[in-house]
Design a protein that fits this description.
The complex is a heterodimer. Chain A is an alpha+beta fold. Chain A is built from eight helices and six strands. In chain A, helix 2 packs across helix 3. Chain A is globular. Chain A starts with a helix and ends with a helix. Chain B is built from two helices and no strands. Classes of the chains: A alpha+beta, B mainly alpha.
Chain lengths: 309, 65
């Protein structure tokens, strides 16, 4: 049986036993309590308590199985021969282009084109994976965010912590996108704070935190941000809520993946789409397929730095 | 005058071509995927409700046996 069918059957069983478990509790609560008080735990014919507890156990088991089949599905989607063949071809071509880039010191315009194609490759890989495991089929957008020097125009940045301008290490701005039409505000400028300043722990979740910690940031539902608040002040956090509410038609979840070159962050790739869980329930499986592109992107950023000197 | 893109000047690179080919592959997969998944989820949901109701009835029958 296909992993997808097994996953959906397990979800169906999960739903069934949830209904039975909740139905028992709501309709026969008094009888269940009486059975428990009379110690009718393992009797025949079965007591109400047994039915209720059995449904609860079956619900838990179905949930565990659905998770396991979900992982199996993710692995089977990402190991399908047709996908692997095309992915390998794409990666081999990217490595070849990287080698040429490093050997020939290409012009900035060519590096721009290479970076944009890398973003498209990542967006397509994520879209392939997600469309195989969810019902909607939303477009995936990959944006490359680059840290720029703070300038006086950033003094009134709405994302800035109170009196945070003097503590700025830089500002992350969208530089490129995998799509022609940018579906998030183009003037987005997210502050990142100096690692030795008093605001070092106030970096906002998402891209700023990914840039500073060099760890992936995954936000599975961008309208429920409380678990990601961290040490951000309430005005900034409310601003984040307002921002994601305004762009809810295009972004419901996102991930920020740091681009690292020579051990330090040089940019962040922000991926979003208009559904939950951008990288799925088991993101580590998909991230393994994105890391090669992030590494190549890091090398291209390095080549760009050399070119700029 | 509008600046020409790299692809316009040099033609698309091998990498760009392979990404386009991959995009076509993803598009062909996604055009058929959601319909079958939707059908499967509807069947599982309706089946879940029916099975839940049947299980409850079987159990109540056993209790009043």
């Amino acid at each position: 049986m296909r992993a997808t069918t097994k996953k959906w059957l397990a979800h169906g069983a999960e739903f069934t036993f949830f209904l039975v478990f909740a139905g028992f509790g709501l309709l026969l609560g008094n009888e269940i309590k009486q059975d428990w008080a009379a110690n009718k735990v393992l009797v025949w014919p079965p007591s109400f308590f047994m039915g209720w507890a059995g449904a609860g156990l079956a619900y838990g088991l179905s949930r565990v199985l659905a998770g396991r089949f979900g992982r199996e599905e993710a692995r089977s989607v990402l190991s399908a021969p047709a996908f692997i063949e095309r992915y390998r071809k794409m990666l081999a071509a990217a490595i070849q282009e990287l080698v040429e880039t490093l050997q020939q010191r290409k012009a900035i315009q060519e590096l721009d084109s290479f970076e944009k194609t890398l973003l498209k490759a990542m967006a397509n890989t994520i879209r392939y994976f997600r469309s195989a495991s969810i019902l909607p089929n939303p477009e995936v957008t990959c944006n490359l965010m680059e840290a720029v020097e703070p300038s006086p125009e950033h003094e009134n940045n709405p994302w800035l912590e109170p009196s945070g301008f003097g503590q700025l290490l830089g500002v992350l701005k969208i530089e490129k996108s995998s799509r022609e039409d940018l579906d998030v505000p183009a003037n987005l400028a997210l502050p990142i704070y100096k690692t030795d300043g008093h605001l070092r722990n106030k970096n906002l979740f998402g891209a700023p935190k990914a840039y500073i910690t060099r760890e992936n940031q995954i936000i599975n539902f961008s309208l429920w941000l409380l678990p990601h608040k961290g040490n951000s002040s309430w005005p900034v956090f409310k601003r984040a809520y307002r921002h994601f509410w305004e762009i809810k038609a295009t972004c419901l979840s996102f991930a920020a993946l740091p681009v690292i070159y020579s051990g330090k962050s040089v940019a962040v790739v922000n991926v979003h789409y208009k559904w939950f869980r951008i990288l799925g329930k088991n993101p580590e499986i998909l991230i393994d397929f994105l890391v090669p592109f992030l590494l190549i992107l890091g090398q291209v950023r390095g080549a760009r730095e050399l070119e700029a000197r | 005058m509008k600046e020409a893109t790299v692809a316009q000047v040099y033609g698309p690179s091998t990498f760009e071509k392979s990404v386009r080919e991959f995009a076509d592959f993803v598009e062909s997969k996604t055009s058929s995927g959601p319909a079958s998944s939707l059908l499967l989820s509807v069947v599982c949901s309706l089946g879940g409700i029916a099975a839940g109701y049947a299980l409850l009835q079987v159990f109540l029958g056993l209790v009043h046996w």
